[in-house]
Design a protein that fits this description.
15 strands; six-stranded mixed beta sheet; alpha/beta; Ubiquitin-like (UB roll)
């Protein structure tokens, strides 16, 4: 049974009339993230690849610094949604409690639950690595990306984040109704496979918001490419964090906003 989609009886209008059809709809549900028995965040997400999501979220939010600090993970099916119960190292949990955050995630919101500006703009060191990539290889990855989006093709309601090799090959991808969640899932999958974040490029099927730049930089990704526009804050943050930010990645064209040295002809 596919838990990421549900069938809905709808009436479709077209060609001057309506007809009853069955439509595939992407499932969105609350996902609770718990650390050492304490609820930290409730995100609305697609109920797939949740182990990758939990690991990626923990890394990109600075809850843990490396995958081995996540000691245990269990998934609990609840009437209201799904709880991901994690155990992290004691010193990491102590730091988590000091942050005093209780997020209520929404598909398009990255600030929910932040109590101060300091929690929004976390201090991060500049990215020191990052692979150089030919523009043609980036374009090739874009052409192949559709093949890695079965949920989007069926429902039209999800984003994808893909991990791209230097030669443009898609090493893995993850989908979710939320662009932040898709990136967290992809980052978690790379981390679980012990991949090198400095050896690839992140490609997202969304606009490039500051949250995505922050998440990419937090794990050392040198280049983030988006099929839509970046925001001003994303550009400012990418410039400061030494991250190459590519926007408007379309067939035959793209725009490099910051640190263009990692993209060459």
């Amino acid at each position: 049974m596919n838990l990421t989609m549900m069938a809905a009886d709808v009436r479709r209008w077209g060609d001057g009339g309506t007809r009853p059809v069955v439509d595939d709809v992407a499932v969105e549900m609350p996902i609770a993230l718990e650390y050492n028995g304490v609820s930290f965040a409730v995100m609305l997400a697609s109920p797939a690849d949740l182990e990758d999501f939990a690991l990626g979220f923990s890394l990109t939010e600075g809850i843990i610094a490396r995958p081995r600090e996540l000691l245990d993970l269990e998934r609990a099916e609840l009437e209201e949604g799904i709880a991901i119960k994690m155990t992290i190292q004691t010193e990491r949990f102590a730091g988590l409690r000091q942050r005093r955050r209780n997020l209520a995630g929404r598909t398009g919101c990255g600030l929910c639950g932040a109590e101060s500006l300091g929690q929004v703009f976390r201090p991060l060191p500049p990215v020191t690595g990052g692979v150089a990539c030919r523009a043609a290889n980036l374009q090739g990855a874009l052409r192949r990306l559709r093949e890695c989006q079965p949920l989007q093709q069926a429902t039209g309601a999800t984003h994808a984040a893909a991990w791209i090799a230097q030669d443009g090959g898609i090493l893995l991808s993850r989908e979710d109704v939320g662009r932040h969640n898709a990136l967290d899932k992809m980052i978690g999958a790379v981390a679980a496979a012990r991949g090198d974040f400095g050896a690839g490029v992140a490609l997202v099927t969304s606009r490039a918001s500051y949250e995505l730049v922050q998440k990419a930089a937090a794990v050392g990704i040198g280049t983030l490419a988006a099929i839509s526009a970046p925001t001003s804050l994303a550009i400012e943050m990418a410039e400061r964090l030494n991250l190459t930010l590519v926007g408007f990645l379309r067939q035959g064209s793209h725009v490099v906003y910051t640190h263009p040295g990692r993209i060459h002809d």
